[in-house]
Amino acid sequence: MKTPISRLYITLEEAIDQAGTDAEAKTRLETALGEVLQISSTFEAMLRISQIEAGARRGCFGPVRLDQLLEEMLEIHQPIAEEAGKQLSLLPRRGVPGSKFSATRTSCGRCVRT
Questions:
Q1: CB 71 within 8 A of CB 90
Q2: How many CA atoms lie within 13 A of 66 on its CB side?
Q3: SS3 sequence, 10-40?
Q4: Mind listing the pLDDT tens digit for each residue in 36-63?
Q5: Which pTM value belongs to this model?
Q6: C-alpha dihedral sign at 82, 84, 86, 92
Q7: Residue 85 — left, alpha, or beta (φ > 0 → left; ψ -120 to 50 → alpha)?
């Protein structure tokens, strides 16, 4: 499935390059290219989920503290938010210890960004 999607992506990129000055065609092709990227992203997520369910990726799992992960995400995204004139903050929860669970940090980071 990944190979046909990759070929479609490349074909659309080539069509955009060959569209020349036809702005309307370029816009439609770029929209289609964005859809292909979304399909690819969805497919990758489904593949990861099926691998996790099958136990193939369990070796990558480890303890993750949610409070530490959120603080790291805040450090990464706060400057971006400030540049856009937005404020991003993390409200402390007093008396609540850091939640721990088994996961991959990458997967958790994706959830927080979404």
A1: yes
A2: 12
A3: HHHHHHHHHCCCCHHHHHHHHHHHHHHHHHH
A4: 988 988 888 888 778 777 775 666 677 7
A5: 0.48
A6: negative
A7: left
Residues of the chain with pLDDT under 50: 114
Q: Using CA atoms, how far apart are residues 61 and 74, in angstroms rounded to an integer?
A: 23
Decide: 98 and 66 in contact? Cβ < 8 Å. yes
- Residue 100 in 3-state DSSP? strand
The answer to whether the beta carbons of residues 19 and 26 sit under 8 Å apart is yes
User: What does the alpha-carbon distance between residue 64 and residue 96 come to, in Å, rounded to a whole number?
Assistant: 16
- Angle, helices 23-54 vs 2-18, to 10°: value is 170
What is d(CA 96, CA 53) in angstroms, rounded to the nearest whole number? 30
* Sheet strands (E) in the chain: 62-65, 100-103
Rounded to an integer, what distance in angstroms lies between the CA atom of residue 13 and that of residue 100? 43
The one-letter code for the residue type at 89 is S
